[in-house]
Amino acid sequence: MINVLENDVLKIEVNSFGAQLSSIKTKKDNLEYLWQGDKKVWGRKSPLLFPIVGKLLDNEYYIDGKDYQLEQHGFARDMEFEVKEINKAKLEYTLLFNQVTLQKYPYRFLLTVTYELTDNSLSVGYKVKNLDSGDIYFSIGAHPGFNLPLHKEEKLEDYYIEFDIPETVDKYHLNNDFVISVDSMPFLDNEKIVPMTKDIFSEGAIILLDVKSNSISLKNKNNSKEVCIKYDGFPYLGIWGQPDNSPFVCLEPWYGVADFENTDKQYKTKKGIQKLKELEEFKSKYTISIN
C-alpha cells in the first residue's frame, strides 16, 4: 500500500511493504529526487536495514552458541508493515516479531518507522522496543538513493558531496564476499568535498567509520539545488552507487556495519551492534531536506 504525505513544498510517498520511502517530489516543479528503482541497475529505492546492516560472512551468525541465517541487510525491507497512523503531516508503520522473524532472529521486538513532513524537510524516525524477557541486540540503518543527475542536460561530474565540517577519515571497502576488508585507505585529509566521478564506486561502497560531521549534502556546482541529510548520532556512514557512471547515489547513515572479513560471527560483539534491556527503547532520526 502506498501512502502519501504532502505540503506546499514537498510530496512524498511511502510503501507499507518494507516501510520504504518511494518518492520525494518538489511541488513547484514536480521534480523527483529519489531514485525510482530499476531491476537492471538497482531495484530498490530506500530500503530499511534491520536487524543487520550490510552482509554477514556466509550469511551466518551465532547467538549463545546457536547459528542463524540472515540475508544482506536483514528482513525488514522485505516484510509488510502495519500502518498505525496517517495524518496530514505524519505516517507511522510498525513491524512486530512473529514466527517468521524468530526463525532468523531470536528476539521479540517492535519496530516503528515514522515519516514526518515539515516545510522542505522529511524526518525519518526509527524506534526499536525490546519485548523479550532479556537483552536484545540489533543494528539499523537507512539506504536512500537519490537521482544523479536530476536533469537530462546535466552530467554526473556536475555534482559533489559535501560534509558539514572538514574530515580526516579513512575509507573501507567490501571484498569479493561483500564483507569489509580489514585494510583501509586514506579518503579525506581535512577536507569537506568529495567530487562525483564516473568511477567513484569502481571498488564498491565507500564505508566510513569515523566521521565527525552530523550532515552530508549532495550539491551541484552549477546551481543551488541541494539534498541534505542530517544524521546526528549515527556512528557510521555509507556512500554507494553503481561502479560505472552511476545514475544514483545512496547516502546511508547507519547504526552498524557489515561483517569484517576476520569476524568470529558472534552477533553480540559485532561492530556497531546495539543492545536494549527488557522493555527499553532505542530511538533515532535522520532528516532529508530539499533546498
UniProtKB/TrEMBL annotation:
InterPro entries: Aldose_1/G6P_1-epimerase (IPR008183), Gal_mutarotase_sf_dom (IPR011013), GH-type_carb-bd (IPR014718), LacX (IPR037481). One of its GO terms (molecular function) is isomerase activity. One of its GO terms (biological process) is carbohydrate metabolic process. Transmembrane segments: none annotated. It comes from the Bacteria. PANTHER family: APOSPORY-ASSOCIATED PROTEIN C-RELATED, GLUCOSE-6-PHOSPHATE 1-EPIMERASE. This is LACX protein.
